[in-house]
């Protein structure tokens, strides 16, 4: 990153270097993801259970977040679409999964998180990751990502190489259950207190409108031709499939981003020609109830990987297009 502004690193600790090889690439027998390699539209990111992927990489309390990106999904995206020393930015950082993956891959990591609780955990997780790497700086800002880029230093404009993020899905999508000791209890399914400014407390239309604002704010931060990756999954509510990936695609195109690919992250392990789903309790319950009404639905076992690029050179758009996202999106 010679002659480029560095992210101010509040930690600066060094320690043993962990392997930087992308586990998805390793499983496929490919070379390190930082070199040219064949691309697949299906990413095998759930060969290992989520808790195994996170083991030792996050501080206690991180599992309380209701919507955590799979670490191997973040690693594969970062290895495939960025290079060591570049800046990876997550405007909806949560507990910092993108930041942790970026630091372990030798990138600089930048995050913005709205809720103070998760911002504190993102900082703690980035600090832990930095303690085990010898390269990469990080910074987490607490603030509203729909008001970028005013939250970040002006010298970062045009410097971000990769934006990797995932939207919140609302209260119906996530959570864990416990039924070994008494009645079935659901927990860890709340982002924070109800707050209309938080995307996590909006419906489909509100999430799409919020993502438009987030992506419009990211555009001035991206270098010309920089990459934006959004991972999102459809979900069912009242028996109907809600096309969140489609709504986000419309929002991204409205900002002036150019779509270059759409991949699938398989949320199931491949074992001897069969799929072992890594579904949530909510997904299983909805599928069973819908089938009980004689509607032949299947478990959702993937996330859509939406890949966009900032306009290159003189074609780069500094001001987003007029927001027509709300008109394209269906019900809340």
Keywords:
22% strand; single chain; Rossmann fold; 332 residues; 8-stranded mixed sheet; two-stranded antiparallel sheet; alpha/beta
General description of the model:
- The protein has 9 helices and 14 strands.
- It is an alpha/beta fold and 332 residues long.
- Strands 1-11-14-8-5-2-3-4 form an 8-stranded mixed sheet, with helices on both faces. Strands 6-7 form a two-stranded antiparallel sheet. A two-stranded antiparallel ribbon has the order 9-10.
- Helix 3 packs across helix 4 and helix 4 packs parallel to helix 5.
- The longest helix has 15 residues.
> What is the number of strand segments?
14
Q: Architecture in CATH?
A: 3-Layer(aba) Sandwich
- Helix fraction? 25-40%
The low-confidence parts are: 10-19, 33-37, 184-189, 316-332
> According to CATH, what is the class?
Alpha Beta
CATH H level: which superfamily? Vaccinia Virus protein VP39
What oligomeric state do the depicted chains represent?
A: single chain
Instruction: Name the structural class.
Output: alpha/beta
CATH T-level fold name: Rossmann fold
Overall average pLDDT: 80
Distance between the termini: 43 Å
Strand order of the largest sheet: 1-11-14-8-5-2-3-4
Question: What's the total helix number?
Answer: 9
């Amino acid at each position: 990153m010679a002659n480029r502004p560095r992210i101010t690193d509040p930690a600066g600790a060094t320690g043993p270097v962990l392997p930087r090889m992308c586990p998805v690439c390793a499983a496929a027998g490919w070379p390190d993801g930082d070199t040219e390699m064949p691309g697949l539209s299906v990413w095998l990111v759930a060969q290992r259970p989520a808790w195994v992927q996170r083991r030792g990489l996050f501080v206690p309390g991180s599992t309380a977040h209701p919507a955590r990106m799979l670490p191997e999904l973040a690693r594969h995206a970062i290895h495939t679409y960025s290079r060591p020393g570049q800046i990876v930015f997550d405007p909806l950082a949560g507990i910092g999964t993108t930041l942790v993956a970026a630091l372990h891959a030798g990138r600089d990591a930048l995050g913005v998180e709205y809720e103070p609780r998760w911002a504190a955990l993102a900082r703690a997780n980035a600090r832990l990751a930095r303690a085990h790497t010898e390269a990469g700086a990080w910074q987490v800002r607490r603030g509203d990502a729909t008001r970028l880029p005013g939250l970040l230093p002006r010298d970062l404009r045009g410097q971000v190489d990769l934006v990797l993020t995932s939207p919140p899905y609302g209260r119906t999508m996530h959570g864990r259950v416990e039924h070994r000791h008494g009645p079935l209890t659901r927990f860890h399914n709340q982002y924070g207190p109800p707050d209309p400014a938080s995307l996590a407390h909006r419906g489909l239309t509100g999430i799409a409108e919020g993502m438009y604002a987030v992506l419009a704010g990211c555009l001035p931060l991206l270098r010309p031709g920089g990459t934006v990756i959004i991972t999102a999954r459809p979900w069912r509510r009242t028996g109907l499939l809600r096309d969140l990936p489609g709504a986000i695609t419309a929002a991204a195109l409205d900002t002036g981003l150019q779509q270059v690919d759409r991949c699938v992250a398989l949320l199931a392990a491949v074992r001897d020609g069969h799929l072992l789903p890594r579904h949530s309790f909510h997904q299983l319950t909805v599928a069973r109830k819908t089938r009980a009404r004689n509607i032949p639905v299947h478990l959702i076992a993937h996330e859509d990987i939406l890949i966009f690029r900032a306009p290159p050179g003189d074609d780069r758009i500094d001001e987003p297009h007029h927001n027509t996202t709300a008109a394209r999106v269906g019900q809340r």
